[in-house]
Amino acid sequence: MSSQNIYILGIESSCDDTAASVIHNGRILSNVVASQKIHKEYGGVVPELASRAHQQNIVPVVHQAIEKAGITKSQLHAIAFTQGPGLMGSLLVGTSFAKSLAYGLNIPLIDVNHMQGHILAHFIDEDGFEKPLFPFLAMTVSGGHTQIVKVDNYFDMTVIGETIDDAVGEAFDKSGKILGLGYPAGPEIDRRAALGNPKAFQFTKPKVDGLNFSFSGFKTAVLYFVQREVKANPNFIAENLNDICASIQYTIIGILIDKLKLATKETGISHIAIGGGVSANSGIRQALKDGEQKFGWTTYIPKFEFTTDNAAMIAIVGYLKYLEGDFAEQGIVASARLKI
Question: The whole model's pTM is what?
């Protein structure tokens, strides 16, 4: 199939961001995201509120994406949307809208796995960013996922390691909550970590066999540590906040890098790409860059706007699937627990 002048609209609504993007032959023309601020008050995403906000945002966001791209709806070749995984109520809004729009325009509908989107975001044509060479290892790190995926081709992916309980983003957020930081706490821990001593306090790394992860024990360790220290000194958090954040971040990054080292050893693959919201963390980015010197890795770190939930990553998967002629039926449904 010719790849000339193909316009794909991508729609992402898996959690609390309503996003739409138009891609033209692999290049982004627009990438619009409407974030929902209301969840900060609750210290986490409230599914019911998220789906309502998606209903309010989806029409203006899609309209803006098409307008910013400088095209009309009639120029679109297909509509790509996030089928899952994610919050069911949120996914339903994007899925229903995408199906209706594709039906109304009489163009193909393309289902996209959100986690594949994070991985294939690396294939967006972006000046100054190299695309990974196959095969490569992808580490997807977010509020809901922590996985190591062996990627042999665009649509030939195997999960070789994943969390057996909590995701890394949750470890950041829960640790931040213990310290009295707002939601989401990850960016604030990252900011403060840069000002602190990463070896001020020691947290033991969970022992998990193989390439799997566990973060629930780590969160408990942080809780007990803080409770113990605050009992001895009520001002402990205020006096040591930067050092605590630096030590938490240092330990979490150590857990991720240790598993990547094991994965490269077991697979013999030294090309490593990262994706997902937590890949915006400056410490993780630096640790990956350091891995190039220390372990001979070739690392691929996405542009910031493609780390958090966005529709450009959904659109690029849509484009790659369009070239394969891989379309969805109108009867397709959202799936909250969709696997790679």
Answer: 0.93
